Amino acid sequence: MIRFESDYLEGALPEIMARLQETNYVQTAGYGVDPYCDAAREKIKAACEAENADVHFLVGGTQTNTTVIAAALRPHQGVLAAESAHIEAHETGAIEATGHKVLTLPSLDGKIRAEQVREYVLRHRADESFEHIVQPAMVYISQPTETGTVYSFSELKEISKTCRELGILLFVDGARLACALSLDYTPTLQELAELTDVFYIGGTKHGALFGEAVVILNEDLKKDFRYMIKQRGGMFAKGRLLGIQFEALFTDELYFKTGAHEMRLADKLRSAFSDKGIEFYYNSPTNQLFPVLNDAQLEKLSAKYSFSLQKRLDDGHTVTRFCTSWASREEDIDGLISDINAL
Amino acid sequence: MIRFESDYLEGALPEIMARLQETNYVQTAGYGVDPYCDAAREKIKAACEAENADVHFLVGGTQTNTTVIAAALRPHQGVLAAESAHIEAHETGAIEATGHKVLTLPSLDGKIRAEQVREYVLRHRADESFEHIVQPAMVYISQPTETGTVYSFSELKEISKTCRELGILLFVDGARLACALSLDYTPTLQELAELTDVFYIGGTKHGALFGEAVVILNEDLKKDFRYMIKQRGGMFAKGRLLGIQFEALFTDELYFKTGAHEMRLADKLRSAFSDKGIEFYYNSPTNQLFPVLNDAQLEKLSAKYSFSLQKRLDDGHTVTRFCTSWASREEDIDGLISDINAL
Amino acid sequence: MIRFESDYLEGALPEIMARLQETNYVQTAGYGVDPYCDAAREKIKAACEAENADVHFLVGGTQTNTTVIAAALRPHQGVLAAESAHIEAHETGAIEATGHKVLTLPSLDGKIRAEQVREYVLRHRADESFEHIVQPAMVYISQPTETGTVYSFSELKEISKTCRELGILLFVDGARLACALSLDYTPTLQELAELTDVFYIGGTKHGALFGEAVVILNEDLKKDFRYMIKQRGGMFAKGRLLGIQFEALFTDELYFKTGAHEMRLADKLRSAFSDKGIEFYYNSPTNQLFPVLNDAQLEKLSAKYSFSLQKRLDDGHTVTRFCTSWASREEDIDGLISDINAL
Amino acid sequence: MIRFESDYLEGALPEIMARLQETNYVQTAGYGVDPYCDAAREKIKAACEAENADVHFLVGGTQTNTTVIAAALRPHQGVLAAESAHIEAHETGAIEATGHKVLTLPSLDGKIRAEQVREYVLRHRADESFEHIVQPAMVYISQPTETGTVYSFSELKEISKTCRELGILLFVDGARLACALSLDYTPTLQELAELTDVFYIGGTKHGALFGEAVVILNEDLKKDFRYMIKQRGGMFAKGRLLGIQFEALFTDELYFKTGAHEMRLADKLRSAFSDKGIEFYYNSPTNQLFPVLNDAQLEKLSAKYSFSLQKRLDDGHTVTRFCTSWASREEDIDGLISDINAL
């Protein structure tokens, strides 16, 4: 069985495993104040051209979202997000467990539009009962989104402009950021640093064992952020493990190369499904593909491959998900393509 | 200016004011363990034919919703409610501030259907990622709803049956319950006590200065509930004030008569709008009416009356709200009706 | 049975009951934006000589403490308080339920000293693990304290100076403030307004049916405070009831006269215990007295009076509490004094 | 500089690094439902002789404490712990951030006694204001404690018996459990499984890169625990990494051997300090030593070694901490001992 159901099925890139091995007996202080973390921070700030940024390393996505959002909001404030956003749909109420409401915006493709944000905020401000309603104070988007779609540079710029005009924060979840960075019409790291208040660079889904690098640009958010990390359970004892991994990812463009690898294999796979006349439920240009398989196709592919079943569409069709990852091998993709061709 | 924008514009029923005055110098213990509270509890249990119920008195609706829901749920559980539910739309995230997500169901009339509950819960249970999604564990409905509509006995029975089959709790917010009780096709107090796990009998909007009486039927919910009241700020020092008011409301059917008065005047007003060809945005049979006024009508009525503006419908029309209350005077309603006729 | 166990055993001052009756049918907007609340706010600001203060009315003490503290602190911050403070000892974890730790300082008399605050904060800042420890960000004191003791003007000034030097907030719980105001060595309302960031003027224990008036001086705390009130369940539908009561309390010095009455009767009672050689467990100059009774005394007084049993001191003695209130009658105090003399 | 300030200064045991390397390209499902986690669970249950236990793997200690405690308590309940307990003193209010109060018991040696628990709980139950006070519902202890001391089998048995008689839960934090297990008078894994409701086996400080294995014995606590893990940010995407590490630790007694190694080197070091007449601030029989150094000693040792400064004791003395770890080398310990001898 060859697995494609997610992009966290294997361990880590060989460069990372090697560095972990090499440094195994080096002694460092704990909790992220070691030389490896320092070096990784410098490399990330350089890549973002954001010398004044604060960079923190956390273990996973839910932890990161919770820590950032709870640190930024006052009790009566909520965070705007698409209905399909990870914080709304797949974190078991982790944001609410910190006391904050996720304020949802409808979305068919996983993205929200600047105009939706503006309308929501202005409607709240114009409501005579505004004090009885959670105050929208932050926008959360994922790049790429949970459905694989991406924000173009101009879309993000428009959202950023809207947020700044309205005086609310913009937070970008980059769990799979390397894939988005690999497209030429999406914001670069430098542009993300210019346009957002805080974003993160996902490691877990791009070849690290684990780890997310939070880049904070907004001065108010920087203050006391390490207390927040500790309180939310993210102050990692052997914090150097995060530094070692991100230092490796930001050496010799490894992070970008990993994204490019995932994207190239996804492109091949996308074409194979398309050529076969199989449609996609979401129009994803990134490493998550959502082909709609009929029952015969589903049965045949299931015999040899694992992939995720998203939802039953109608009596004969199912939305599925296939992901490529840093570890996907060309020969496995080619094999899958042959099997698709033979459907 | 005669005001109709809500049903909490005045003080309290004369019977209540008189009792407060008469008992003013009587000394009693604090925190709701006095003879007045005891007597009120007995009267309410008798009215509900629920001798084993626990009855607690709280000050207001948001406090009551928060206390009940936080007492009932474990951290990973959420409460199902209509999109327009008070706890979702107008409590500034009070439920989320206790750590719990409100799980919304779409609704055009403020009501939810048993089938929606069943589908939501079964879909959650069937999802392979169910542990990544908030677990629905309680249904919250308002009787009447925020839009003035009501659940019939058979509708509530169906919701209750569904909740019990699914093993989830049913909680009814009765902030304006007296109005619903006044209709012959809605559940009675006894039926509410049979069909729900917990509900409350609203005083604030039916002639009390303030106060909501929580009736707990479910044994698990009874345990340690007074701790919850204290923690959520609802342990009222001079608790007897709540007992005195509810004892008065449940003496000589005062609560029911108050509801009937509000309903009778609302019926007259509803007919007047209808006769004039003015449509209602929500089809409310209770004391909140939502006529859609055109700009000319709005301007004329605004000169003499205050009422609430719910939303701008289109370029020439506005959804408004007119409420009758325990204190509404027949002559004021008749005057308003004349002015409607003259529009 | 004549009761002395607390100061919330009766209803309200006749001036308040009369005003509630007089205004009963006047129509006003809800939620504290009515003319009575406005008038009460103006009177309180005038009494405090603090024209720029924001004044809000809440229903009870726990609700007020919770709302103020949760509004002021970021997630990693805690509030310093005496071990015997109400928020630490008698609010069922209401502060923790908002996510914040109460950081306790030892105290024998219910008061904390400026030096304790300074030491605690400086020790935290000097600790290399400071980010692993809750950050002290506010001082909470009660005036009078839970044991009836009071802060002198110079003591409060010193605490205030310390807080400002350290950059932390000062919050004064004035549930029984009228008693403290009645002493000549304690801070006046104007001085409280100068020295604190926020304090409240207790109504419940000084002749109101209920109600606490929060006076916010610190600009940062003012922002969006009404959202906080709503979220914590304190947005009172018939908010005017609070305005009417506080307007009455701040008309013709009624609040101060009420405090003076409670204090005068407490003084008489204190002398009676002292003259009899009965000692006090706490050295309270206010309306709560804590005489240590032997078993014979306890039995005799219990036959005719109710009072609260604080703790068993040793095999033959019990710490008790006797309170005077706005409603205490001279003849009842005199009768009790005779019975004390006859012990 | 040779470092002794903590036991998380290095990476992981060679056996663990080897297994991570070997399994790097194996594909498995995420979130802890893979064959490695299953195998590790079986080995741990076998070692505990607790076939019905539920075993979950989390990333770190604060996360584990928060998840277990928040899962177990209802809103009005708190957890009893020593004043020096990690959850009280060094987790930035993580427990309070879940809404629960830590109820502290005084302790000079980091341990609490069964009698203290009994007294606290019975005093609460006897208090007339019990509903105004947080309800103690769980005991949290660390084995070894934060000061290196340990509970003997009979001490733990007495605490367990007391908890069961009182109907409250017992939770043991075993962040450094391997050290305690290495002593013959402490409870074994099987005894921990018999005497507690839930405990955890610490990996981070015993040679894993990271990871804590939670063993749940109490049926009520087992229910829906994975939801709690997800909500608190502990649902690790590449969950297999935890399984691989714990499987290695519980193969060929590696966990026990690691503890024994740490203890043997600590014993040598302890003797060296003692022989030199240097006293210990805490009487720790485990791998954390707390020698009190005078300024001359401090200066000399600081030149060559790093260790942690706990607190300034008096004008000439400082409490320090030296830890041995899985990675401590015999020659480094011997070198340090020579330097101590030469002081």
Offer a quick outline of the entry.
Four copies of one chain form a homotetramer. Chain A is 41% helix and 18% strand. In chain A, α4 links the parallel β3 (77-82) and β4.
What is the secondary structure topology, with strand pairs?
The structure is a homotetramer of 343-residue chains.
Chain A: E1 2-3, H1 14-22, H2 35-48, E2 54-58, H3 61-72, E3 77-82, H4 86-89, E4 102-105, H5 114-126, E5 135-142, H6 153-166, E6 169-173, H7 177-181, H8 189-195, E7 198-202, E8 212-216, H9 219-222, H10 225-231, H11 240-249, H12 254-275, E9 288-289, E10 292-294, H13 295-302, E11 305-306, E12 308-314, E13 317-323, H14 330-341
Parallel strand pairs in A: 1-11, 3-4, 3-5, 5-6, 6-7
Antiparallel strand pairs in A: 2-8, 7-8, 9-13, 10-13, 12-13
Detailed description of the structure:
The structure is a homotetramer of 343-residue chains. The first copy, chain A, has 14 helices and 13 strands. Chain A is of the alpha/beta class and 343 residues long. In chain A, a hairpin with a 2-residue loop joins strand 12 (308-314) and strand 13 (317-323). The model of chain A has no long low-confidence stretch (mean pLDDT 97).
Q: Percentage of helical residues of chain A?
A: 40-55%
Output the helix-strand order of chain A.
Answer: EHHEHEHEHEHEHHEEHHHHEEHEEEH
> Which spans of chain A of ≥5 residues are poorly predicted at pLDDT below 50?
none
Arrangement of strands in the largest sheet of chain A: 2-8-7-6-5-3-4
Number of strands of chain A: 13
Q: Based on the structure, what is the oligomeric state of the protein chains?
A: homotetramer
Q: Structural class given helices, strands, pairing of chain A?
A: alpha/beta
Principal-axes shape call of chain A: globular
Largest interface, with counts of residues having CB < 8 Å to the other chain, equals:
A-D, 50 and 50 residues
The residue-averaged pLDDT of chain A reads 97
